[in-house]
């Protein structure tokens, strides 16, 4: 498995993977699939330096998953906080892909001018909770019924980790 920064050549596979979660999961509150062109703007938020990263896991030219560190909020006072996320291809779950992606992402974030990483997890999602706790995240609260997806109300549990 190759772990590396994601780029323009990965955009079709990144879009396909994310759209799987858009149409079949509570993991994102997006509910309309994206085109590749629509996801291009999202891709360009990331760089190979600095606090905002995109790491992909690829095996035999197949995208297995990706992890990101994104701005938490646009106001300058939040610049030392990132929101992180990970998405793994359904066929690759249970293989440690998410763990390897987060290991690499946090290695890349080491030394950046960051103070906190946050993760919002639509619950229930015990696998994601275990992954985040394994990486030192602590539960700090839950917003109840803050969104709807697939015809149901969804709670979001928030986790934080010092950086």
Q: How would you describe this protein?
A:
This protein is of the alpha+beta class and 163 residues long. It is built from four helices and seven strands. The protein has helices spanning 11-24, 36-43, 97-109, 126-134; strands at residues 2-5, 54-59, 62-71, 81-88, 116-123, 138-149, 152-162. It has a seven-stranded mixed beta sheet with strand order 1-2-3-4-5-7-6, sandwiched between helices. The longest helix is centred in the first third of the chain and has 14 residues, at 11-24. The radius of gyration is 15 Å and the shape is globular. The model has no long low-confidence stretch (mean pLDDT 97).
Tell me the layout of helices and strands.
Elements: E1 2-5, H1 11-24, H2 36-43, E2 54-59, E3 62-71, E4 81-88, H3 97-109, E5 116-123, H4 126-134, E6 138-149, E7 152-162
Parallel strand pairs: 4-5
Antiparallel strand pairs: 1-2, 2-3, 3-4, 5-7, 6-7
Question: In short, what is this structure?
Answer:
Helices cover 27% and strands 36% of the residues. The chain is an alpha+beta fold and 163 residues long.
Terminal residue distance? 26 Å
Strand order of the largest sheet: 1-2-3-4-5-7-6
Uncertain runs are none
- The counted number of beta strands is 7
Structural class: alpha+beta
Counting H and I runs of at least 4 residues, what is the number of helices?
A: 4
| Helix percentage | 25-40%
Strand-residue proportion: 35-45%
Shape from CA axes? globular
Order of helices and strands: EHHEEEHEHEE
Largest sheet data:
7 strands, mixed
**Rg calc:** 15 Å
Q: Tell me, rounded to a whole number, the average pLDDT.
A: 97
């Amino acid at each position: 498995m190759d772990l590396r920064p994601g780029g323009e050549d990965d955009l079709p596979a990144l879009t396909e993977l994310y759209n799987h979660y858009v149409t079949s999961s509570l993991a994102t509150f997006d509910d309309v699939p994206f085109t590749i062109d629509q996801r291009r703007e999202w891709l360009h938020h990331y760089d190979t330096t600095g606090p905002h990263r995109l790491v992909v896991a690829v095996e035999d030219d197949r995208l297995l998953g990706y992890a990101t560190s994104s701005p938490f909020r646009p106001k300058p006072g939040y610049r030392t906080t990132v929101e992180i996320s990970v998405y793994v291809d359904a066929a690759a779950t249970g293989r440690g892909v998410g763990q390897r992606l987060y290991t690499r992402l946090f290695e890349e974030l080491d030394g950046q001018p960051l103070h906190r990483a946050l993760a919002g997890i639509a619950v229930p999602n015990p696998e994601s909770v275990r992954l985040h706790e394994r990486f030192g995240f602590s539960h700090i609260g839950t917003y109840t019924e803050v969104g709807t997806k697939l015809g149901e109300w969804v709670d979001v549990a928030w986790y934080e980790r010092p950086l």
